[in-house]
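We modelled the chain as a single entity of 272 amino acids. Its sequence is:
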Amino acid sequence: MAPDTEEARRARYREIIQSFTLMDDIFMTAVFQNSLPCVDLVLQIILDRPNLHATSIVTQDTLKNLHGHDLRLDIHAFADGQEFNIEIQRAKNGAAPRRARYHSSIMDANALPEGADYARLPESYVIFITETDVLGGGQPLYVIERVIRGGGGRFDDGTHIIYVNASMADMTTPLGRLMHDFRCVRSEEMYYEVLAKQAGAFKKHERGEIRMNAALEKLIEEVSEEKVARARETERLSSIRRMMEKLSVTAEKAMDVLAIPQSEWGRYKAML
């Protein structure tokens, strides 16, 4: 096998970068980072609000949950008392309805300061752009809002969940052209100039290529760390089982002997 030289690695990365579309999380993050015009375009088309303009955006924004699972948002944007989360999902299980619910709830929990009145909660929008028709209704766009059953109208709590089906790209509509651009490999074939310019900057220019190379290196490092963590987890589980079997001790006693932090006991017990 030929040695993995810096030149060979860069060539391999360049090939990967050229294959990216905006449906790839790592590329989407790079294109939308610090680009209010790109975010504005997406929100204006999906929400059919041509005058909407975001005031700030954060990509890969982590929202803390002190009592459970933290949440990382692909795109987190704000505009005049409104909060937006745009998620790109290629896997069907990554856009499950309960995940959308969780995104909405954690955004609310982080938006309201302690002691503040509930009226200060911003209008929130969780938008999933999915590669396939996750909800299966054959529609390009699904708008989910709470209603009062029995003809009572909308339950206006200020939350909105929207699914965009990227597999339907009707070029006669703004949404269809936008979804075409999200699935487009070549920036010069995109309809929207603002997206084409940003995407092209990472595929055609050295400066953009350097940034994408760094992002790929970071991703590879994170994946490697996850593999090490999974291997350690598997080894620990095996050791717990062996001690329980050979010494006839409880799972708690085995984990205590193995010096596994008590904060992790519940997780390991659930996997036994």
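As a brief sanity check on the tokenised model: The first strand starts at residue 56 and ends at 63. Residues 84 and 125 are 5 Å apart (CA to CA).
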